[in-house]
Amino acid sequence: QVQLVESGGGLVQPGGSLRLSCAASGNIFSINAMGWYRQAPGKERELVAAITDGGRTNYADSVKGRFTISRDNAKNTVYLQMNSLNPEDTAIYYCNADIHSWGMAAKGGYDLIYWGKGTLVTVSL
User: Fold this and answer.
1) C-alpha 24, offset from chain centre
2) Once rounded to an integer, what is the mean pLDDT over residues 30-38?
C-alpha cells in the first residue's frame, strides 16, 4: 500500500506565494508521473501541473508563468511552487502519483495511481 502525505496549504493574500509538498511512502519500487489537481467550489476537478519521471512538465493555461512543479526522486516528493496567487486559485488541491509497487509472493509487481486527501488553499484578503 502507498500513502501520499500533503503539506503547505493554508490562507494567503492575493499576490502572495505558497509552496505545496507531497511525499509518497510505502510499497514503492518506482514512481512514474506525479502531479497536482484542484477543485474549486462548484467547479470540476482540473489538472494544475504534472511532471514525468524524465522531468517533462505540463501546466494548465491559467497557471503558466505563475506555478512551478518539481520533484525530488530521492525523497519521493513532488512540489508545487505557487506565485502571484489570486482568488481564482482558491480550491482544494490534490496530489497524485503513478507508482509501481513490489508484488506479493509469486505475483509480479503492479502499477496504480494514488491520490492524496487534498489540502485547502484559500486566497483572500
Assistant:
1) 11
2) 97
With beta carbons less than 8 A apart as the criterion, state whether 22 and 78 touch.
yes
Which long-range contacts does 63-72 make (Cβ < 8 Å, 24+ apart)? 63/89, 69/35, 69/36, 71/34
Ramachandran quadrant class, 84 (left: phi over 0; alpha: psi -120 to 50; beta: rest): left
Q: Where residue 46 falls among pLDDT bands split at 50, 70, 90? A: very high
CA 103 to chain centre: 25
Taking a C-beta distance cutoff of 8 angstroms, is the pair 102, 27 a contact?
yes
How far is residue 119's CA from residue 78's CA, in Å, rounded to a whole number? 14
